[in-house]
Amino acid sequence: MKEVLIDIKDLECKIGDQKILKGLNLKVNKGEIHAIMGPNGSGKSTLSSLLAGNDNYEITNGSIFFEGEDITDLSPEERSWKGVFLAFQYPIEIPGVSNINFLRTALNEKNKFFGKDPIPAKDFLKMVSEKSALVGLDNKLKNRSVNEGFSGGEKKRNEIFQMAMLNPKLSILDETDSGLDIDALKIVAGGVNKLKSNENATIVITHYQRLLDYIVPDFVHVLHDGKIVKTGDKNLALELEKKGYDWLKINSLN
Amino acid sequence: MITDKLNYSPLVKAESNNALDQFKGTLYPSKKEEEWRYSPLKKLRKIPFINDSSFVVKNLSLLNLPKLEGNILVLENGRFNPNLSFIDNIQGLNISFISNSKENYPYSTNLKKEDYFSLLNSSYLSEGIVIRVDGNAKIEETVNVLNIVSSNNCLVNTKIDVFLNENSSLHLKQYFIGNTTSKNGFINHLNNISIKENASLVLDKFQDLNLNFNISNDCINQGRSSKVISNTFSTSGLFTRNNVTNNVNGEHCHSELNGVFSPSENEYIDNHTLINHFVANCKSFENFKGIVKGNGVGVFNGKVIVHENAQKIEAFQNNKNILLDKESIIYSKPELEIYADDVKCSHGSTTGQFDDEAIFYLRARGISLKKSKELMILGFINEVIKKCNNIDYQDFIIERLLNN
């Protein structure tokens, strides 16, 4: 019997007066990779942001269980400590804060939550060089301000590097392929695959099938108008690539 | 009247007894004056100031200060406190006190009616320190001057004259401290700084006044090829105002005025600066960052004047502010007046709040809301903090700025 990692039940949310998610259900077990695809405006990025705890959205119904615990009302940092990680579609630039200082703070805040001592500088630096090698992140970038002046590809690598450092149970990759050339895509996907284990799970949010050649999903879901309207295996992604989303809209109306 | 309860101390021996007498009744500026529009002068007006030159502080470790290295000169309530001071004899460095001087020490004669607090300073000077650096002397040791007010309602008028002769250098650190146990004390201070050809001065100022007042007037005169770097960190104070005038009188000078100021609830911190480029081929850089909390009020008014014929000037001025709360107020007025035609100058000012997306990003990485805000502030002030080359001092400033 597989262990459920995250269980999203009847999730509905709105921003202002606009309803975005309209009863979304999704269950992800440990060891699985799920892809969520869907046209623009279907609610993909809302879902990822919501799972990470962004309170710009008002949850009007439903709940999110993580390892059996209701995390619907938890803050972003509490979710992070419990093992939720969101790789941002548009990683934020934070001038004046070095990547290294940012990560050390993040790790130590997590340690503090678990009642552990701060990580010794030597161990931290060793970990940094190990994990950055995973995505081939340039040494110089580690000491620069967070994402400041990074190219699109460097920002995405930096996201996966952070993911490797924080070692989450659930990674949500929000359009990690956008803005990446094919070489960078391979490197980023390679990093994600190396971090995969039977103890963690990944939700890949993407427009295009291309990324799924490199990160092969166990399930593909189609999100449309705030709901999952179809679920299949990796072949569903290929079908979508060929036919677009319109045939699904018609199907779901019927 | 501010001076009603003061006993006149004739430290300044001039022909006229009292500089203020010349301008009777004009001690306080009016709010209608452009330069004083945003200053809550009524805070000062209602305090009956007194003289009180007693020593209260038993040990410097009782004050919140970083580790002090080099010479330490302590003025407490306007009087030199030898018990807290440490003066090392350093070749090329001459330190003397106006109260010990056998010569007549004239007050500044070039004061105008509008120099309200300089006039007050000149008339009621309680102590002055004269620091001279001989030509070619590079002073490695830092000279620390602590100016502490530790008695309630105490008016302190102090002054430092700094003379850097040709090719010399000095690092001066000033601390304006309002003891946490005192309130409504007022340090009215004057720096008169003269930097001769090829000399260089680093002036770090730290102002932590708590429930006390501080007005600090700096007049800096630069000779040819000289350099001044002034870093001002103002962490607290009911009323803290810096008036800096930097006259660049010789060519090929480098002038830098940097600062971070963080007024919080009921506090007012004001940086007024004026850089006068009188001659050609000089560079000036100005960078002030404000962090305003609660109903605190911050002011930045920086003026750069490039005078006629001062060609090839490069002058850059920048002021950025973060308002942490809805009630927080900042008045920012960057001014640039250019009367020469071949110059490279810019000025800018931005004021905003925390970027919510950035805060969410940090929190999504497991950094608590409080710590996320701290990191954002650190990032915001980093480029100014880095101007200080001492890590302990940097850490101290950061700690004080975050915890005010």
Helical element count of chain A?
9
* Count of separate structural domains of chain A: 1
Question: Which fold does the CATH topology of chain A refer to?
Answer: Rossmann fold
The count of strands of chain A amounts to 12
Please provide the ordered H/E string of secondary-structure elements of chain B: HEEEHEEEEEEEEEEEEEEEEHHH
Proportion in β-strands of chain B: 35-45%
Helix content of chain A: 25-40%
Average pLDDT of chain A works out at: 92
The structure class of chain A reads alpha/beta
In which range does the helix fraction of chain B lie?
10-25%
Query: How are the strands of the largest sheet of chain A arranged?
Result: 6-9-10-3-11-12
Termini Cα gap of chain B = 32 Å
Shape of chain A: globular
Shape of chain B: globular
Distance between the termini of chain A: 35 Å
Largest sheet of chain B: 10 strands, mixed
Order of helices and strands of chain A: EEEHEEHEEHHHEHEHEEEHH
Topology:
The complex is a heterodimer of chains A (254) and B (404).
Chain A: E1 4-15, E2 18-29, E3 33-37, H1 44-51, E4 58-66, E5 69-70, H2 76-82, E6 84-87, E7 94-98, H3 99-113, H4 121-134, H5 139-143, E8 145-146, H6 152-166, E9 170-174, H7 182-195, E10 201-205, E11 219-224, E12 227-232, H8 234-243, H9 246-253
Helix pairs in contact in A: 4-6, 6-7
Chain B: H1 41-45, E1 71-76, E2 79-80, E3 93-97, H2 116-123, E4 127-133, E5 143-149, E6 155-164, E7 169-178, E8 186-195, E9 200-208, E10 213-222, E11 227-236, E12 239-248, E13 254-261, E14 268-277, E15 283-292, E16 297-306, E17 314-323, E18 329-338, E19 344-352, H3 356-364, H4 369-385, H5 391-403
Parallel strand pairs in B: 1-5, 4-6, 5-7, 6-8, 7-9, 8-10, 9-11, 10-12, 11-13, 12-14, 13-15, 14-16, 15-17, 16-18, 17-19
Antiparallel strand pairs in B: 1-2, 3-4
Helix pairs in contact in B: 3-4, 4-5
